[in-house]
Amino acid sequence: MGHSAAVWDYRAATEITKDWNGIDKIVLRNPRGASARVSLSGGQVTSWRNEQGEELLFTSNKVSSKPPKAVRGGIPICFPQFFIWMLAKFRNCGSLEQHGFARNKIWTIDGNPPPLSPNDSQGKSFVDLLLKPSEDLKCWPHSFEFRLRVSLAADGNLTLISRIRNVNGKPFSFSFAYHTYLSVSDISEVRIEGLETLDYLDNLCQKERFTEQGDAITFESEVDRVYLSAPNVVAVLDHERKRTYVVRKEGLPDVAVWNPWEKKSKSMVDLRDSEYKQMLCVNGAAIEKPVTLKPGEEWTGRLEVSVVASTLSSEHFDLQRM
Ligand code: TA6
């Protein structure tokens, strides 16, 4: 029987343990038994479970990446770039790796972060993480501070708030994504609503621009797209589980959608051949128009993921109601 939220000590509900790779991870719990896990390796959310203990994020069972490389799954942070071409080659070290360095760095717990609004803390179990430039970051010589708050609310919703500041260095630009691996029953049973009629960049066609024609996104083959200027609420309906993920975003104009399908899965060392059926990436992102920060400026990107029961058969999910 969970405690009542009134007496729940959220601070005590946050514990620090070790990850499978010996790196600190933080466990967040709420009064009803939901939980989330965040690794200091990459600031990566590696687990988000509902009050029944069901895992809501996909993580590959084929974990071959050695830390601090990102484990395939959870919510890796893509910063300061998403696509390799986004940011030109850097002097003295070639180009950044795909999706940038943030997910491959060890973050620290930020004991004294600049305050967020009260409702970003009240009634939530949360942790504040910090990433600052390190000596080996010569390939992105910018004076940044990246603060990430991960929180779990009493209703089980998961929220990630990224605050990236230019600490009085020269202006810099970046692109960003919360690379969110949702766990689904079977990709052929899933559809996305909220991206209809939008333009998208198709990464399978040299990032050429197309317009979405369908009245929902369904999956019959590999999909690797960035939907542009998307609404701030997108729904991912899992018909078999009668479950809908509601993805809300702020400061993140785009939504990257990815499923590798069978052929690409077979070529990936950290994904089992058939695991593509159980995953779908729906990534709140700022990709088409990189963010530029002048000295002292700060950008905030907020993502909230929640799960609602969806007894929908064919009618559309009422996004306006969310
Ligand atoms: O989200 C789309 C994407 O850029 C795909 O092209 C694929 O590369 C995926 O991300 C996974 O990237 P990763 O670097 O995590 O292997």
Walk me through this protein's architecture.
The chain has one helix and 20 strands. With 322 residues, it is mainly β. The chain has a single domain (4-309), classed as Beta-galactosidase, Chain A, domain 5 (Distorted Sandwich), CATH 2.70.98.10. The strands form three sheets. Strands 5, 10, 11, 13, 14, 15, 18 and 19 form an eight-stranded antiparallel β-sheet that branches. Strands 6-7-8-9-20-17-16-12 form an eight-stranded antiparallel β-sheet, with no helix packed on it. β1 and β2 (24-29) form a beta hairpin. The longest helix is centred in the C-terminal third of the chain and has 6 residues, at 261-266. The model has no long low-confidence stretch (mean pLDDT 90). It binds 6-O-phosphono-beta-D-tagatofuranose. 6-O-phosphono-beta-D-tagatofuranose (TA6) is lined by residues 98-99, 179, 203, 224, 256, 258, 281, 283. It catalyses: alpha-D-glucose 6-phosphate = beta-D-glucose 6-phosphate. Keywords: Isomerase. This is glucose-6-phosphate 1-epimerase. Substrate binds at residues 72, 98, 103. One of its GO terms (cellular component) is cytoplasm.
